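Usage

Read records sequentially. Each one opens with the input sequence:
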Amino acid sequence: MGAAMLMVVLFHVGGARHDTLFYCLSRCGNVGVDVFLFLSGIGLWFSWSKIRSKSRVKDDGLRNDAGGDATEGRASLKSLSAFFRRRYARVYPAWLVVACIFYLPRFFDGRLSALDTALSIAINWGFWQHDELTFWFVPAIMALYTVAPAYMELIRRHPECRLMPVAAMVLCVLVQYWPPLHSAVGHIEIFTSRIPIFLIGINMGQAVMERRPIKRAGWWMVLAIFALSALACVNFEDGLRGRFPLFLERMVYIPLAVSMSLLLARLMEPMPRWAGAPLAFVGAVSLEIYLIHAQFVLLPVQRWHLGYWPTAIAVVAASALLGWLLHKAVGIVTSKIY
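and closes with the structure output:
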């Protein structure tokens, strides 16, 4: 997740267009979002399995005492409540702080109405309404968290439904080209085209939990997928942007994100703890860095015209520090509530 967050920051820093290989690679840094969603899906499977396991143990004890199945529904509701509480507690408090800092000044100077301000702070309504991309990842991940338990239970009971990501990819094509669907949700293509990679992450959660190894032949396949998808994305960015619908490149992001995540995991496995500590630190506060870096750090730093790498280093350093402070402050408050 730390590596994925750095990719996103490098993508946002941008730079003058000059169609070099590095420029194309930095533009491909948008795939960091897909890597993050892929890893989040894997993590949710772990979380849901753990919560369900605890719930089953408690439910079995209650049924033995009560002599019936009357408590099963209550236990399921408790599992669902515990899942949502943990997921939302990780995202929503930090979001509320940053959203208030960002949107309230716009209300006081007349740029936003009271209703728009309230909806923006509560659920970032502007994204769902007219594709306002400021902080778009927050409402997107909250929506995916909301449907995740239903999908995890579906594939647990009916494993054949693990093909759902394929259907989600077809949905992306329909969102782009079927007029009724395009007119309804075409403006949030940046969200709909990320649904498949999130579902794939959940699908792979069980394999990761069971520590199923990838054999040597499998790694050659992973390398081939990575090379082909990276080549496709680089060529998309090499003078073709604006000449194709964006969802097309996001479809190629799916195999790129999966293969990149597996290869990064393989490369990082033998890494000494001290060498991986900076990435682990960035990964631990990746949400806070995402919320802070673009609007509160990058925009002011860009006014100094430092150049690409000095700007990128300054943004990463300042965002990581501010993100850590926000993470600690929110943690202190939420620990007292929960």
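Summary fields computed downstream for this record:
- Residues 46 and 209 are 7 Å apart (CA to CA).
- The mean pLDDT is 90.
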